[in-house]
Write a structure and sequence with these properties.
Organism: Acrocephalus arundinaceus (Great reed-warbler)
Shape: elongated
Number of strands: 6
Helix content: 25-40%
Family: Belongs to the TRM44 family.
Strand content: 5-15%
Keywords: Cytoplasm, Metal-binding, Methyltransferase, S-adenosyl-L-methionine, Transferase, tRNA processing, Zinc, Zinc-finger
Oligomer: single chain
Largest sheet: 3 strands, antiparallel
Main location: cytoplasm
Zinc finger (C3H1-type): 260-290
Strand order of the largest sheet: 1-3-2
Structural class: alpha+beta
């Protein structure tokens, strides 16, 4: 819609319509095929000869569409533009304001501003040139919100608080470790639901976590060394129960695992009251700075 000479290439991936998630309309097709047909339809409605191709890439979603030529003459642009406007309006959701009738303006006058990269807030002199009132594009710089950008000291504090909460939630349990014929006890603590864990964290911590996608659960899963989250319940990880690396594991993954061995300090060796449940030679993490690689 930017100009008559515009061509396009698109590799459909996530199922989105103009204003939100794509809603399925046919049950006889797979969701992927139905969405591909929708994307192709957009190209046809916009007056393109749409070509479909399958890319040689390592992905399950590798069907692409190319629009290199138009199905109409340049003189018919105004008529096709009305057709595009009607198509967009027909797919609007009730969540979008429909009172604005300024859609489908003369793009000869307004194309210049719209061909530029979209920003979250259009400049004042361009507010009347938007094609879709109510549409909110993403920010130019997408904010990382998977708890990876949280301050390290904040993450460490939450991890320690949650671990202590699990360790003190119930009387110490005995975990049998019969290596060498000795009976050793190692406190694995209790398991608690995510809701129970959240109830014990202060308001400021929860507010900070709520601003991240996944919140508390994401932070705990990111700290795989210390916790495992199963069916909405948080457990302290017992590395004695972890399966040894499979010999059938791809060579690349085996090499990466070997390269990561002893490159980080063992949280349990430093913080757990019983230390690490594994001997130093079996633990993938360093028992002290002298073991760090």
């Amino acid at each position: 819609r930017s100009s008559y000479s515009c061509c396009y290439f698109v590799l459909p991936c996530c199922f989105f319509d103009f204003h939100g998630k794509y809603s399925r309309r046919q049950s006889k097709k797979t969701q992927y095929r139905e969405y591909l047909d929708f994307v192709a339809q957009v190209g046809f409605v916009c007056g393109f000869h749409v070509e479909e191709d399958c890319l040689r890439i390592p992905s399950t979603k590798r069907v692409s569409f190319i629009g290199k030529s138009r199905t109409y003459a340049a003189a018919e642009r105004a008529l096709i533009d009305q057709q595009i406007t009607q198509f967009i309006n027909s797919r609007r959701t009730c969540a979008v304001a429909t009172g604005d009738r300024r859609v489908g303006l003369n793009h000869k006058d307004h194309c210049g501003g719209l061909c530029k990269e979209a920003s979250s807030e259009p400049p004042e002199d361009e507010t009347d040139t938007i094609w879709m009132p109510g549409f909110q594009p993403r920010e130019r710089v997408e904010q990382i919100r998977n708890c990876a950008s949280l301050p390290r000291d904040f993450v460490d504090e939450v991890v320690l608080n949650v671990a202590n909460l699990l360790l003190n939630a119930a009387p110490q349990k005995s975990c049998s470790d019969k290596q060498g014929g000795n009976m050793n006890t190692w406190n694995q603590g209790e398991s608690l639901s995510l809701r129970e864990v959240a109830e014990h964290l202060n308001r400021e911590t929860l507010k900070k976590l709520k601003s991240e996608y996944g919140g508390l659960q994401t932070l705990l899963k990111n700290n795989h060394q210390v916790f495992e989250v199963l069916n909405g319940r948080v457990h302290i990880r017992d590395w004695r129960k972890e399966k040894p690396p499979s010999k059938s594991k791809p060579e690349v993954k085996r090499r990466l695992s070997a390269e990561a061995f002893k490159t980080r300090l063992c949280w349990f060796f430093i913080h757990h009251p019983d230390g690490c449940s594994l001997p130093s030679e079996a633990c993938p993490y360093a028992h002290g700075t002298e073991e760090l690689r």
